[in-house]
Write a structure and sequence with these properties.
The complex is a heterodimer of chains A (about 160) and B (about 525). Chain A has about 160 residues and is an alpha/beta fold. Chain A has six helices and six strands; from the N terminus they run ααββαβααβαββ. Chain A starts with a helix and ends in a 6-residue tail after the last strand. Classes of the chains: A alpha/beta (about 160), B alpha+beta (about 525). The interface of A and B includes residues 20, 106, 108, 110 and 112 of A.
Chain lengths: ~160, ~525
């Protein structure tokens, strides 16, 4: 990376190539920063109706990848996620999809075209929490480990956060 | 080529209907089908755009409601054959100098379908709508079946066929109705006009329609009625005229009949008068002849008498000589008596001939043509006329010169009529010369008579050196009853009859040449066969 930046500074690359490489460098920096963010803990909140109290990580992944569409009581699974440009969103992408944000967007685009229910993306935690409280069967990923009233915290692999 | 009004209307309507049928059967379905296809393509394109917009929103905003709704809408369409998302990747070569664009199908519905076969055809409409985002570039590919369009086009065509058939049927019925409604009054009007043209002015029975033809029919009816009135009036006037004409004709015929009777009577009177005049003229000429004839007869009679007396004396001498027995003297006396007897016979015959000629001249009936010696006739009548003139005027003397063509021979003519003509002309010549002699004692009258034969005519020319005829009366001398002689001396018919005898009786010609104070020549031409 340093040698690459050094090459940019010295102007050894062509201009069009420089632009491409500039973009790649920025992306690498972002990934680096996000990896730092991803380190933060995420927790799962769910509406009182629908989601079970405990889930395995694989079950959670299956649910958030749209593979599980109904709860055991037969109610519809409603996914709530922070947008991928937020820290929580990027952490979610990393932990539940093992994909970066763009790949998750593309993933949900293809899923939506197949007719699979897509998550509802939010800009803020408060909005997400409010949505989960108000929507039966809703399940969301948030930072921190506190569930608002009208919802409950779902344990993942027996832990409050993952 | 005669094309009736009915046919013209039918042809016009047929042309319009066919034109309209063509439009409704071919042009309209073609246009509508094309428009339907274009609209359908636009609709597919719009749906592709909606999906692409949904994809952009989904990728940029992470809002998947739009694309979800668009996909639900598209999938709900039975004509959908395929909908898919193509990702376009830029593949650089190793040194980043060139790149290729590669499309890969991210997702498709139905999944089994590949994009290679997605080409627009008659049965398939394929639309691609590109979208660009920071995350990816790609295309929404959408394929729809054209079955619905084809069905729609077929429905349009069937509707057009049905509409065309209805239009054609209605058009033809309308054409027939129109042609019937327009042509019938026109044809009836034509028939009525023909009838009127042929002179039938009886009232015209025509239906009046509420249009221009109806107005024309009314005008025609009024015209026929007016013509009928005028015709009747003219007929009455004509009858009155004919009646008047008939009355006038009757009166005229009566008048004509009366006039004809009068004219017949006049003609009879005239004919009688003419006969009397001709007879008078004949008698006059006979009177003029009488002197000549008397002189002519007197001569032979003198001879007869003288020789008879001489023979009487010689007979006495003969008896004396017989008694005396002087034979020689007897013989000589007998020969002389015989010679005298022969002379008596000769002169007696001559007198006989003169009498016969006189009788022939005075004969009433028109003579028939017969061969005659024209020179002999000329000679005889010249002598008769001269002696006749001399018997009336003892002092008259004229030198008569004849130049007669001996080759003439016998000519077909009526001798007594030609003799009468010659006598008339010669007498007039002697009278003219006698008048001149009275005025000029030193004057010597000379009359020249000549005959000449030509190829087809015989000419008789009688010329005198008398007083001539004044120019103002030259044109009148052949007119009946024209005479310059004192009343009672001439009938005025001599030259008129002479003219008729030559021109009508012998188909000849008579000409006059005269110089006042110097003399006159009459030239007669008689045709010979």
């Amino acid at each position: 990376m340093l040698s690459y930046l050094l090459m940019l500074k010295t102007g050894n690359l062509k201009k069009s190539t420089q632009n491409q490489h500039m973009k790649l460098s920025l992306a690498a920096i972002l990934i680096f920063i996000s990896s730092l963010v991803n380190a933060q803990d995420l927790s799962v909140i769910a509406n009182d109706k629908g989601a079970p109290g405990q889930l395995k990580l694989t079950e959670l992944q299956s649910i958030f990848q749209g593979k599980t569409t109904k709860w055991t009581n037969g109610s519809k699974v409603v996914l709530a996620m922070m947008k991928t440009n937020t820290d929580a969103g990027q952490a979610t992408c990393q932990k539940l999809f093992q994909m970066n944000a763009d790949e998750v967007k593309k993933y949900w685009l293809t899923q939506s075209m197949k007719g699979i229910e897509t998550p509802v993306f939010f800009n803020g935690i408060a909005e997400l929490k409010e949505f989960v409280v108000k929507t039966p069967g809703a399940i969301g990923i948030v930072e921190g480990s506190e569930a608002p009233a009208g919802s409950r915290l779902v344990m993942v692999d027996g832990k409050k956060s993952f | 080529m005669f094309i009736g009004v009915k046919t013209k209307i039918l042809l016009t309507v047929l042309a319009i209907v066919l034109l309209f049928t063509f439009f409704s059967l071919y042009y309209f379905p073609s246009q509508q089908g094309g428009a339907l296809l274009r609209n359908y393509r636009n609709e597919v394109q719009n749906q592709a755009k909606t999906i692409a917009l949904g994809a952009r929103i989904a990728l940029n905003e992470q809002n998947f409601e739009g694309i979800k709704t668009a996909m639900d809408f598209v999938k709900g369409n039975e004509a959908l054959r395929f909908v898919g998302l193509l990702q376009t990747d830029t593949i650089w070569n190793d040194d980043h100098s060139k790149f290729d664009l590669k499309d890969s199908l991210l997702v498709g519905f139905p999944e089994i379908m590949g994009t290679e076969a997605l080409v627009s055809s008659d049965s398939l409409i394929v639309m691609r709508e590109p979208f660009r985002t920071e995350i990816m570039n790609g295309d929404i590919i959408l394929a729809f079946s054209t079955d619905a369009i084809k069905y729609g086009q077929r429905k349009i065509w069937l509707t057009a066929l049905l509409v065309s058939s209805i239009i054609f049927g209605i058009g033809m019925l309308l054409g027939l109705w129109l042609s019937r409604n327009i042509s019938h009054p026109v044809l009836a009007l034509r028939k009525a006009a023909k009838r009127v043209g042929e002179g039938d002015l009886s009232p015209v029975e025509l239906k009046r329609t509420k249009d221009e033809i109806g107005e024309l029919t009314l005008a025609f009816k009024n015209m026929v009625a007016d013509i009928k009135k005028l015709s009747d009036l003219t007929l009455v006037q004509e009858k009155e005229k004919q009646h008047l004409l008939a009355t006038q004709n009757e009166a005229l015929e009566k008048q004509v009949e009366e006039r004809t009777m009068e004219l017949k009577q006049s003609l009879t009177d005239l004919q009688a008068a003419q006969s009397q005049l001709i007879q008078a003229e004949k008698m006059a000429s006979l009177g003029e002849l009488t002197a000549g004839i008397a002189h002519e007869i007197q001569n032979p009679l003198n001879f007869v008498n003288n020789f008879s007396e001489l023979n009487t004396e010689l007979s006495d001498e003969l008896l004396v000589e017989i008694n005396s027995g002087n034979t020689e003297e007897v013989k000589e006396l007998a020969a002389t008596i015989k010679e005298n007897s022969q002379k008596i016979t000769f002169h007696g015959k001559r007198a006989d001939a003169i009498v016969k000629s006189m009788l022939q001249h005075s004969r009433q009936e028109n003579g028939k043509k017969e061969p005659a010696d024209i020179n002999g006739l000329v000679d005889e009548y010249l002598r008769l006329a001269y002696h006749g003139m001399r018997s009336k005027d003892k002092s008259f003397y004229a030198k008569c010169e004849t130049d007669l063509d001996s080759t003439i021979g016998m000519v077909e003519m009526v001798p007594q009529d030609i003799g009468r003509v010659l006598l008339n002309i010669i007498n007039n010549a002697f009278l003219a010369m006698a008048d001149k002699k009275k005025a000029d004692p030193d004057y010597t009258p000379v009359l020249k008579v000549s005959t000449h034969k030509y190829a087809e005519t015989v000419e008789i020319k009688i010329s005198d050196n008398g007083t001539g005829i004044p120019s103002n009366i030259v044109d009148k001398i052949f007119q009946p009853f024209f005479t310059t002689r004192p009343t009672g001396e001439g009938t005025g018919l001599g030259l008129s009859l002479s003219y008729d005898i030559i021109t009508k009786g012998h188909q000849g010609e008579i000409k006059l040449e005269t110089v006042e104070g110097e003399g006159t020549s009459f030239v007669i031409f008689i045709p010979v066969p």
